[in-house]
UniProtKB/TrEMBL annotation:
Gene3D superfamilies per record: FAD/NAD(P)-binding domain (3.50.50.60), Flavocytochrome c sulphide dehydrogenase, flavin-binding domain (3.90.760.10)
This protein's name: FAD-dependent oxidoreductase
Source species: Thiomicrorhabdus xiamenensis
Coiled coil: none
The keyword Signal is assigned to this record: yes
Organism lineage string: Bacteria, Pseudomonadati, Pseudomonadota, Gammaproteobacteria, Thiotrichales
Keyword Signal assigned: yes
GO MF, any single term: flavin adenine dinucleotide binding
Limits of the Flavocytochrome c sulphide dehydrogenase flavin-binding domain: 364-430
Residues of the FAD/NAD(P)-binding domain: 40-156
Alphabetical keyword list: FAD, Flavoprotein, Signal
Record Pfam families: FCSD-flav_bind, FCSD_central, Pyr_redox_2
Alphabetical list of PANTHER family matching this protein: FAD-DEPENDENT PYRIDINE NUCLEOTIDE-DISULPHIDE OXIDOREDUCTASE, PTHR43755
Domain Sulfide dehydrogenase [flavocytochrome c] flavoprotein chain central: 171-286
Length: 432
């Protein structure tokens, strides 16, 4: 094995945000790409988690052979998809390809679906029948939906009342429905129970739909029926909704009896103890679980998510298999793109360390969630996490949340930071 200069590796890690003066990776390999030498990594999923792992393994140790399996030729981000519903950005803004990962970093991207994993034989089967061998496997498939939790709801009904909780055709369908809603009509969101992808996401979404209605349908109303008693950044969203949209948005939680139990498609009505409510556009965001392949691979526990070591993200069920992103149980870290990418960097360092028989460096994970309440009105929450007694926990005093009662100037600055965050994280993962 040729030697990578420690200085070069530490520089790469610094860019990843995990440099440490005590970092133990001293002798990884160099630019020799000819041989994988027992260093074959297969990654399932090319979203925030999987693409980050792919890029950073190649940055830390370019001699590792990295194959990423992702059915889509381009990836549309959920972050920013609410801005699209408001008409603030277009589909191109949200869409990223895998060219830089392929050509600059040497990641082998296969546009296939992984259909099976044999964790004993260390193989992954693809839907074209091909079988790939791995030394380490990373699974980052995102989420799947629990359709049968609400009577009358199903995968087919989701094409009529789109969840749009995976960005793509349903996001475009929901935008069309919002644009075609009658003047003075009602938009109804059925919010998901915990745990789910992107805790502030539903509330940013109704904010962005209000932004659209304010311009194009000012007498429209928005109602949220929520099976939870509270939600992320609730006080800040409430302040913004009152200040920017007056009475347009009404929110009801489970304490109001707002847990929806039944849906009738024909009459566009949802049922709960709160009331029977009819609406012109209905956005049902169902309960969630880990992406299907995580179940097929036997990586989930009774919770429907994947238990992992909180430093390395190695599965607690299958050795040499790692799970990052929404599908894994990462203690107090929210299921977000930023979390998935942060975990992806730690996981890449863990894999490079283990493949080169080096100690794992100390880890820290970070999450930042920006939400737009209006085009020029942003709020945010930041958390830094460490492994405390086997669970990722927020470090007290590190991170924070936007302050209540801030000036419009401060809210505008946060909205600008939100757009900068999007540009920098998507550039880091897919375009640099
Ligand atoms: C409306 C909305 C707004 C959001 N806003 C933000 C935000 O502002 N900031 C933020 O940080 N996060 C945000 N999020 C959350 C963010 O989108 C997710 O947390 C993030 O995408 C998780 O990354 P992941 O890699 O786990 O999954 P994904 O990014 O979903 O990637 C999973 C990939 O795996 C692929 N895949 C699945 N199964 C297979 C298989 N069997 N074989 C091969 N490939 C497979 C899929 O095609 C997909 O591309 C938002 C989410 C929503 C819904």
């Amino acid at each position: 094995m040729q030697k990578l200069q420690r200085r070069t590796l530490v520089k790469a890690l610094a860019a990843a945000g995990i440099a440490s003066s005590t970092f133990g990776l001293q002798a990884c390999s160099s630019n020799d790409k000819s041989q994988a030498n027992g260093k074959r990594v297969v990654i399932i999923g090319g979203g925030f988690g999987g693409s980050t792992v792919a890029k950073y393994i190649k940055r830390f140790d370019s001699s590792t052979q990295v194959t990423m399996i992702e059915p889509k030729k381009t990836y549309m981000t959920c972050p920013g998809s609410n801005w699209y519903l408001a008409g603030l950005v277009d589909v191109d803004y949200l869409t990223h390809d895998y060219e830089t990962l392929k050509t600059k970093h040497g990641v082998n991207v296969l546009h296939q679906m992984a259909t099976g994993v044999d964790a004993v034989a260390k193989t992954v089967t693809l839907d074209n029948g091909e079988v790939l061998e791995y030394d380490r496997l990373v699974v980052s498939p995102g989420i799947d939906f629990i359709y049968d939790a609400i009577e009358g709801y199903s995968e087919e009904v989701a094409e009529i009342f789109p969840h749009a909780w995976k960005a793509g055709p349903q996001t475009e369908l929901l935008a069309k429905q919002i644009q075609e809603m009658p003047q003075g009509g009602r938009f109804l969101m059925v919010a998901p129970p915990n745990p789910y992808r992107c805790s502030p996401g539903p509330y940013e979404r109704v904010s962005m739909i209000a932004e659209y209605f304010k311009k194009h349908n000012p007498t429209a109303t928005i109602m949220v029926l929520d099976p939870k008693t509270k939600f992320s950044k609730q006080a800040l969203f409430g302040e913004g909704w009152r200040d920017v949209y007056g009475q347009m948005i009404e929110w009801y939680g489970s304490q109001d009896g707002a847990t929806v139990t039944k849906i009738d498609v024909a009459s566009k009505t949802v049922y709960s103890d709160f009331d029977e409510v009819s609406a012109d556009v209905i956005n049902v965001i169902p309960a969630q679980k880990a992406g299907k392949i995580a179940f097929t691979a036997g990586l989930t526990d009774d919770s429907g998510w994947c238990p992992v070591d909180q430093d390395t993200f190695e599965s607690k069920i299958h050795k040499d298999v790692f799970v990052v992103g929404d599908a894994c149980i990462a203690g107090a870290m929210p299921k977000s793109g930023h979390s998935a990418s942060s975990q992806g960097k730690m996981c890449a360092a863990a894999i490079v360390s283990s493949l080169n028989n080096l100690p794992m460096p100390p880890t820290r994970n970070v999450n930042t969630c920006y939400s737009l309440v209006a085009e020029d009105y942003g709020i945010s929450v930041v958390g830094v996490y460490e492994n405390k007694d086997g669970r990722l926990s927020g470090i007290p005093g590190a991170g924070g949340v936007s302050k209540a009662g801030a000036s419009l100037q401060e809210r505008k600055m946060e909205a600008d930071y939100a757009r900068s965050w999007y540009q920098s994280i998507t550039k880091d993962i897919w375009h640099s």
